Amino acid sequence: MIVRRGTGLKRAVEVFVLRNWALILTVIVTEQAIVLISRYTRVLETDVFSATAIGLIATVVGIFIVFRFNEAYQRWWEARILWGALVNESRTFAREVVTLFTPQRVPKLESDHQANELQTELVYRHLAFCNALRLSLRGQDAWAELAPFLAAEELAELREFANKPTRLIRSQGDRLAELIGSEMSQQLLLMRFDSTLSRLYDVQGGCERIKNTAFPDSVRLVSRGLVWLSAIAVPIAFLTNDRHVRLIELLAVIVICLSFMVVEQLGASLLNPFENKINDTPMTALCRTIEIDLRQQLGEKDVPPPIEPIDGVLM
């Protein structure tokens, strides 16, 4: 995710040119080709290519691109909301573990030391869940990153499951059910934990829905086709009687055409917010935020630092 403080004006211009130099070159070449065609042929000397008609085309293209961008932005924003919910639910789960999972409320815990060990086990397994969800959504196979949070036996067993985040939540439920007794007061405690685990499943399911629901290809193809149509049509509107395009008009053509193209490309990049790209949800940073918060709730002092943006990008 691009952060505001990390990108100054100079850096923004450099990044824009570096990322869009091919589009800029394409627009210039297209404009010059249209000038040559209009100068040596009569193909463009029709009312179809009048400024009014081209303005109407540009308006239609703009409306369609805005619609597609809004749909893409909704997916991107929902992904960010879901991960914000994961941060909050993680804090809730850790608070419940630390304050409720004590010898006074769970008779099977014979001492504070045993309670602390089991609190650490549950919280660390939750940290494994958050990072497993991140790896799963990004399609990464770096499951060794979960080693600091899980016992070696559990990590080896986890590799056999297709959906590793789901298995970790199930393991949390099994462990809690094993430790909490059958008395009514303890069953109420178990139900409280179960409710939190269910909300975590909701977050996971929402992320997987965004990840696995593809945007219709027909919309993408039509959107891109209309953008390129505008890139061809707009320069025609700026042709003068001597079939030339002045410098200021050339700049106007580049700005207008690039506006369509860049917005269309930005919409395409926002459609899939879990691909580990610069505009995506910063899941690595959010996992680190969760880790810091939860380990401090356990009373740990030696916690890792927050993830800092690199060149204005937070991953």
Oligomer type: single chain
Structural class by SSE content: mainly alpha
**Cα distance spanning the termini:** 6 Å
List SSEs in N-to-C order.
HHHHHHHHH
Could you report the average pLDDT, rounded to the nearest whole number? 80
Helical content, roughly? over 70%
Question: Count of helices?
Answer: 9
Kindly give the count of domains: 1
Q: Got a strand count?
A: 0
Main sheet properties: none
Anisotropy-based shape? elongated
| Structural Rg | 28 Å
Show unreliable segments.
none
Fraction in beta strands: under 5%
Architecture overview:
By secondary structure, the chain is mostly helical. It has one domain (24-246, 280-297). The protein has helices at 9-40, 51-100, 112-138, 152-158, 164-179, 184-212, 217-237, 247-270, 283-297. 26% of the residues are buried. The mean pLDDT is 80.
Architecture blueprint of SSEs:
Elements: H1 9-40, H2 51-100, H3 112-138, H4 152-158, H5 164-179, H6 184-212, H7 217-237, H8 247-270, H9 283-297
Summarize the structure.
With 315 residues, the chain is an all-alpha fold. It has helices at 9-40, 51-100, 112-138, 152-158, 164-179, 184-212, 217-237, 247-270, 283-297. It is built from 9 helices and no strands.
List keywords for this structure.
9 helices; 315 residues; mainly alpha; 0% strand; single chain
